[in-house]
């Protein structure tokens, strides 16, 4: 028997058949139950563990349909429309599901109907029944009000006026019911009878394309899984070519014979549909997760799904038949590194609209970086040569303060400086390059940031630095200028 705390009291949350035979009921206080039967075993409920178990069962049910939704704390909705013929019909499919759950140690009750409400009632009050279309009213009529999935307080109000079954509610006038008890009663009734549609919202997004392989003999080795990935990718390629698309994200689902499901996902920088390239990505991912994937007694179902797609641009090949995209190899290399080490393993610098050096560039994951586009040529415009300002090879994430004892002139470069406890003598200097603060970022009432004067400095040993003075000596209103090291050239 399972207990949970409700209104500062321990009550029965669930019980087995032996406890039901003792005439114990859900909601009864634990103290009353122990008074009746002192030898009963009571276990505290673990809601989080129950939720994880239910989600694991939902993942396993994905082998029958991608439309799987969680119903409350102990139920699942499966929309099997268009899937039953793959398992020999409705009865064969339901028998297989119940048998597999029983083999895993679960006592499961199932109901199959044309509406979610009728299927819910059949599972909860009959256990194993298939309701044909048009028989929903006959199913619901003798059942209690709880079969309509309405709130307990609404049920109590209906029972107080003598409406104790779903059939009594169906026979009552609709308008007085709606006025007195709300529209939810009629909504649930119409959904169960098929008068109104009720959608099953899947817990996971449905993949636009999927291929799978049922295995007579379960596989356990990584090499066998990779060969299956290659064969499934070949089947996917034909569908992607027909749609003119390429995969941007793929998922490999491994269904273990004992019910566990392993979900392995990879992403691509460019739309992809070549089977060998897809196999390389999953090879890296499987290698990284080899210690975490427990094959148990083997996988009997392997599914490869395309989670997201993008338009596939055909590339013109050269005379040797090879593609002329120079970025393809770099993208594949980055995708393989990301598959093995994670999304943050490969970052790409992206230009940001800011003239401050530390804000001018940011790094984003490789797959999220904008793709390089060749600008359209305009023959009317004469060619222009733009020389951007010289920047150091290494730019520090945060400028480091330095000590400048003297300068040639108040607003000129330093003669020497001390950085990281070492003294450097300046041999040559170029500048200044003045960079003002971004005034549009300044908040109302906030003090304006000082102006920066950048210098390219070469010391007596030939090392080159990029440093700047923050503030001006001639400004009496501001504090004394400070010097910072922002980068090194070599």
From TrEMBL:
Family affiliation: Belongs to the DNA polymerase type-Y family.
Superkingdom assignment: Bacteria
Keyword match DNA damage: yes
Name of the protein described by the UniProt record: DNA polymerase Y family protein
Residue intervals of the UmuC domain: 7-123
Source organism of this protein record: Mesorhizobium captivum
Domain DUF6504: 401-487
Assigned keywords, A-Z: DNA damage
PANTHER family per UniProt: BLR3025 PROTEIN (PTHR35369:SF2), BLR3025 PROTEIN-RELATED (PTHR35369)
Source species taxonomy: Bacteria, Pseudomonadati, Pseudomonadota, Alphaproteobacteria, Hyphomicrobiales
Gene3D superfamilies per record: 3.30.70.270, 3.40.1170.60
This protein's record includes keyword Cell membrane: no
Pfam families hit by this protein: DUF6504, IMS
């Amino acid at each position: 028997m399972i207990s949970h705390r409700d209104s500062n009291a321990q009550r029965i949350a669930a019980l087995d058949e032996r406890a039901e035979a003792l005439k114990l009921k859900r909601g009864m206080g634990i103290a009353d139950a122990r008074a009746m039967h002192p030898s009963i075993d009571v276990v505290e409920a673990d809601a989080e563990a129950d939720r994880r178990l239910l989600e694991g069962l939902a993942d396993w049910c994905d082998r029958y349909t991608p439309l799987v939704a969680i119903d409350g704390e102990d139920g699942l909705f499966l929309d099997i429309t268009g899937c039953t013929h793959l398992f020999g019909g409705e009865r064969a499919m339901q028998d297989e599901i119940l048998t597999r759950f029983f083999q895993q140690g679960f006592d499961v009750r199932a109901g199959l109907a044309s509406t979610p409400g009728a299927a819910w009632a059949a599972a909860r009050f009959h256990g194993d029944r298939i309701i044909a279309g048009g028989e929903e009213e006959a199913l619901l009529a003798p059942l209690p009000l709880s079969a309509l999935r309405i709130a307990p307080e609404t049920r109590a109000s209906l029972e107080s006026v003598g409406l104790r079954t779903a059939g009594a509610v169906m026979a009552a006038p609709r308008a007085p019911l709606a006025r007195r008890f709300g529209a939810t009663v009629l909504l649930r009734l119409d959904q169960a009878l098929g008068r109104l549609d009720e959608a099953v919202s899947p817990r996971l997004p449905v993949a636009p394309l999927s291929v799978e392989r049922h295995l007579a003999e379960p596989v356990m080795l990584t090499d066998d899984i990779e060969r299956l990935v290659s064969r499934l990718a070949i089947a996917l390629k034909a569908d992607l070519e027909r749609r003119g698309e390429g995969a941007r994200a793929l998922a490999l689902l491994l269904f273990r014979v004992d019910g566990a499901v392993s979900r392995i996902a990879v992403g691509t920088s460019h739309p992809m549909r070549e089977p060998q390239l897809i196999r390389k990505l999953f090879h890296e991912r499987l290698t990284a997760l080899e210690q975490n994937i427990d094959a148990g007694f083997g996988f009997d179902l392997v599914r490869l799904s395309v989670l997201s797609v993008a338009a596939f641009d055909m590339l013109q090949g050269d005379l040797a038949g090879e593609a002329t995209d120079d970025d393809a190899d770099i993208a594949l290399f980055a995708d393989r590194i990301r598959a093995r080490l994670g999304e943050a393993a490969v970052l790409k610098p992206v230009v940001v609209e800011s003239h401050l050096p530390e804000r001018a560039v940011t790094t984003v994951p490789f797959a999220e970086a904008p793709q390089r586009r060749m600008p359209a040529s305009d023959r009317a415009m004469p060619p222009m040569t733009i020389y951007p300002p010289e920047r150091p090879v290494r730019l520090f994430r945060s400028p480091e303060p330095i000590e400048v004892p003297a300068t040639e002139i108040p607003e000129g470069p330093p003669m020497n400086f001390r950085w990281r406890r070492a003294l450097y003598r300046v041999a040559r200097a170029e500048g200044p390059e003045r960079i003002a603060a971004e005034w549009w970022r300044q908040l109302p009432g906030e003090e304006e940031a000082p102006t920066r004067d950048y210098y390219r400095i070469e010391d007596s040993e030939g090392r080159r630095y990029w440093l700047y003075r923050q503030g001006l000596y001639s400004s009496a209103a501001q504090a004394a200028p400070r010097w910072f090291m922002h980068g090194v050239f070599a």
